Amino acid sequence: xxxxxxxxxxxxxxxxxxxxxxxxxxxxxxxxxxxxxxxxxxxxxxxxxxxxxxxxxxxxxxxxxxxxxxxxxxxxxxxxxxxxxxxxxxxxxxxxxxxxxxxxxxxxxxxxxxxxxxxxxxxxxxxxxxxxxxxxxxxxxxxxxxxxxxxxxxxxxxxxxxxxxxxxxxxxxxxxxxxxxxxxxxxxxxxxxxxxxxxxxxxxxxxxxxxxxxxxxxxxxxxxxxx
Length: 227
Known about the structure:
The protein is an alpha/beta fold. Helices cover 44% and strands 11% of the residues.
């Protein structure tokens, strides 16, 4: 029986609001790994490792950690940081299926947890705008836990908070690497939220369920015997 539904934040509840073509072009220019070409996935993973495991007092502290972590220097990295940190907060809103889903799940008695890789300066602005704490019983924030998904400590924090078994939780997220792999390795059933309905070869990572909208999460819960 599912008791806790865990949600990722970015691209699950809110859009990343990043100019992806521009960021990809910057990544291609940067050669961030000791002069070698890098993928967007390489960059995002390293950005999370550098900036999302501790709390910052101000933007300049975050900027120094970010810039010190890459072999490339100069204006391209500054542009990359601007694109992922500064240039998107005002555009952030919930996807239109989010609030109805959260309210419905709460009314049915489920506990709700947010589990996100994020740095505190951005999250504090999002919390001020969207009041996430009004909807969730637990906020699992990487900068407070000191790790990022898919590290098991992130999922352990949720299980320990509610005093439940991993099998009594359901992880909902858009990242196959962070959300789905992390949940499966911890014994938590998973839902891949695939909003753009992109095709994927599940050779190594296979979610238990796949949805394009959160409105269908009741079908997943029914499939798990909770309908």
